[in-house]
Amino acid sequence: VTTRLSKLEGAVRDFQHSDSEPSDDDPGRMRAVIDALELEFSAIVRRAQQRGEHVADGNITAASWIARTCKMSVKSAADRLCVGEQLAALPKVAAALAAGEIGYQSVSVLSHLRDKLGEKRDLFNEEEMLDYATVLSLRPAQALRRRLACRGPGRLLPRG
Amino acid sequence: MLGEGGTALSEFEAAARRFLERQERQVDMEAYREITDALKVELALAIAAADEGKADL
Q: Fewer beta carbons below 10 Å: N end or C end of chain B?
């Protein structure tokens, strides 16, 4: 049975072995595809975690299981799990990535930001944060995330 | 946007779009990861090629 995945594998092989035209050396377009596939990977690993697949092999955490299975760092695996978990609550962010308006790293920063808000995550204004991510570079959002990690969510949210 | 034009890259973009639109959600994540890792190598090569082109200016 030819699955969608094997078709994708074939397409990657064709792309790798094609006599590419100069216009194919387009890092921006390639990055957009990779980012869309990376976001899908986040959703895939989240679903695997929800099914409890990591428990079957006696792994302590889903992140360590994904890291070992997919030959990546635990930190990267944990990032994909966080993004996958937050994705359901961030449909506009996901759509912006699919449209090429933001990259995966921005989605990751926003996901971690929402995750760090903990019980106050309902106060995360997706539209407003998406505007920041679209207009600003990654640096201010990363700085916000670091401040949040240091001070806790209460210090960044409106008072009163 | 994914999948416009008629080059090797645009054909690949179209294949990626078809994959993302699939009905069957369960995927072999190890095989899938190998694909995205291979693509990141391709991206590095594209960046190197773009950089080489700039050096010729």
A: C
Indicate the pTM of the whole model: 0.83
Reduce the DSSP state of residue A49 to 3 states and report it. helix
Query: What is the spatial distance between Cα A100 and Cα A88, in angstroms, rounded to a whole number?
Result: 19
Mind telling me how many Å the CA of A26 is from chain B's nearest CA?
7
Q: What SS3 class is residue A141? A: helix
Distance (Å, whole) CA B56 – CA A89:
47
Q: Which of B4, B10, B22, B35 to mutate to test the interface with A (most CBs of A within 10 A)?
A: B35
* pLDDT given for residue A160 in this prediction: 38
- The ipTM is 0.82
Q: Are A2 and A10 in contact (CB under 8 A)?
A: no
Tell me how far CA of residue B29 lies from CA of A45, A49, A96, A124, in angstroms: 7, 12, 24, 30
For A108-143, the pLDDT digits (tens) are 999 999 999 999 998 899 999 999 888 876 666 667
Distance between CA atoms of A137 and A150, rounded to whole angstroms? 21
Say how far apart CA B45 and CA B53 lie, in whole Å: 12
Residue A135 and residue A96 in contact, taking contact as beta carbons nearer than 8 Å: no
Residue A154 carries which DSSP code? G
Which residue intervals of B1-57 are DSSP H helices? 8-20, 29-55
Which residue in A18, A33, A48 is closest to B13 by CB distance? Answer: A33
Given CB atoms, is B4 within the 8 Å cutoff of chain A?
Answer: no
